[in-house]
Specification:
Layout: E1 11-18, H1 22-25, H2 28-41, E2 51-55, E3 64-71, E4 74-81, E5 86-93, H3 99-109, E6 114-121
Helix pairs in contact: 2-3
Length: 125
């Protein structure tokens, strides 16, 4: 599904993945690879290297990995929770992109069977 710009401000895709392998979600190299490759999959351009930070468990949080990459078209971020088998990915863009490609790439990388997707129009106010 290619999203059409209705208002010219772009789109925001949110993917919530569940029941994902703990080892995949805790793999820093894999998360960096996803952040580097996903922009190419959806025809976007990186401005920075991918950055991945490990968050240690806290009283309110099980910890995991947080990754980020800045794009010419905006950014991609991901937060993983390996112990919970979950991740949350945001693709925020000022341009239209192929949503199916954007979903299928992490779906394949994480062997994702169960997920929720939300697509928002940027600047929809």
């Amino acid at each position: 599904m290619k999203v059409r710009k209705i208002h010219g401000n772009g789109n925001h895709l949110i993917i919530d993945g569940v029941d994902i392998s703990e080892s995949l979600l805790d793999d820093e190299k894999l998360i960096k690879k996803i952040l580097r490759e996903l922009p190419k999959v959806v025809d976007m351009h990186t401005l920075t290297n991918a950055k991945v930070i490990r968050a240690t468990p806290k009283e309110y949080d099980t910890g995991g990995l947080t990754g980020f990459i800045v794009l010419s078209e905006s950014n991609i971020s991901i937060h993983t929770y390996p112990q919970e088998g979950k991740f949350y990915l945001d693709l925020f863009s000022c341009m239209e992109f192929d949503v199916d490609k954007a979903i299928n790439y992490p779906k394949k990388k994480f062997d994702m069977k169960d997920f929720k997707q939300t697509l928002l129009k940027r600047g929809d106010y």
